[in-house]
Hints:
With 554 residues, the protein is an alpha/beta fold.
Amino acid sequence: MNIYSLGQSGFIYNAHNTYICIDPYLSNSVEELMGCQYVRQEPVFSNKAILSSIDYILITHNHLDHCDPETLKELLNHSLTSKIIGTIEVINFLKDIGFDSTRLLLCNCDSWTDITNEVKIIGTIAAHPQISVDKNGNYSNVGYIIDFNGSKIYHSGDTSLVDEVIEDVKSKGPIHAAFIPVNERNYLREKEGIVGNMGVRDALHFASILGVKYFVPMHYDMFQPNSVHESEIEIVHQNSVSGFQLLFKPKYINLSEIRYSIIIRTLNEEKHLADLLRSIQTQKDLSGGVEVIIVDSGSTDRTVNIAREFNCRIVYIKKEDFSFGRSLNVGCAEAKGKFLVITSGHCVPQNEYWLCELCKPLSSNQADYSYGKQIGGIQTKLSEHRIFDKYYTDVSRIQKKEFFCNNANSALTKEIWQKYKFDEYLTGLEDMDLGNRLIADGGAIAYVAEAPVYHYHYESYAQVRRRFEREAIALRKIMPQLHVTRLDSFRYIICSVFRDCISKHSKRSILVKFIDSVFYRFNQYYGAWKGHAYHRKLTSKEKEIYFYPNKLVG
């Protein structure tokens, strides 16, 4: 479902070729009536193509910032077939000022109104600030539930949180996404003549009671005296127990049942994260909805902002609590899908069938865990290209003895994760550790060459050394029988450098290839040897180095 935020409580919802607008305020009428402190903070939505497509305009109550005659006249002129649905007070008010009565419909709170074969609506009780109903049972203030082919969107209108509202909405659910006001009633606002609604905590509690998947705060951004900072809403949400995703002014909401949960570990991944998320949006041949969960461990760049722009669910893990396995367990625990898809914030799918192909061996019960092909980018080091070539061939296979796999591009079922979970104390290779346990129990791992990603590494040689060192420390725990001697390392370096130099991956001169390869391979195998020789428990300083390879620790 596409969503267009109009500010205040105004939204346009578009799904199944139907456009429904609620409480549009697209003028400066409030400022003209009440003074300059009510200048609008949000720009006027002016997409004429969208405005002229509106089929129905739903009005929750007769307040100027929700029922603005200037806005409504303009919208009816844009779309000559659109109709307004509202409370008895709204309908009578609009008739009195000259609106065409044939385009005005009374809201029904007792039964569903069919808009199309796939879309229907019903009114809900609202308390603003109390429930108000006339002798004929007509409510003065309402909310709306829009049913888009079985997925229900609740727009509460202006309301406080009272038992009657809760029970009415629950009886008409289940609710997929809730749009709820957060501009709480308080002493100062009432002194200014602002009625106010529920506060942030009540709104979050209401969303939790309804069991929604998405919560969208509203009525906080248009007028300064009635505003709430998004950071306040986010902090309260982070510190509350909720099973839903907080979205600010979303551009779309997935109405499908979540089948794929994509978990992305991030730390300062702004360079490629947007490309990754855009690619996820374009995936095809899927048998259900997709959610994206970002597990962030302290990004200081635009990573978190980019994630918000793409409606990702963001969970946080403190640096001192971070490990590769723990961060994935946190993300997997949040996931609602059957398939848990894991990728790196610096990987980008190569095509629009990546997700479908990666999960095929799981959905067909050929394997319990899958991993896909990885390809280097333009700036990938020659030796790294050859490592990708070695482990990620062009031929798919089912592994029943080999437990190699890689969480830069992998998938497993929620059931398998719940049974095994990732080791939270390893310094790396949490994927191979789980794979090892899975194979030992008779499970299978699928390598899927048809699910490729570009894997971008921008590591210094010191960072390469630390990466292979921490992976070797982990490998000692997974395969204690494995030993790497100094002689082994020297032999591996000589052999790898020779093969790098004759590789066709690079058109550079043999001398340049040789220099690059020597530096890379020395750090790779020196790090691996050092890690295999490591027997002590990691210090806090060493954990910083191993778990945060982009940070130099002096």
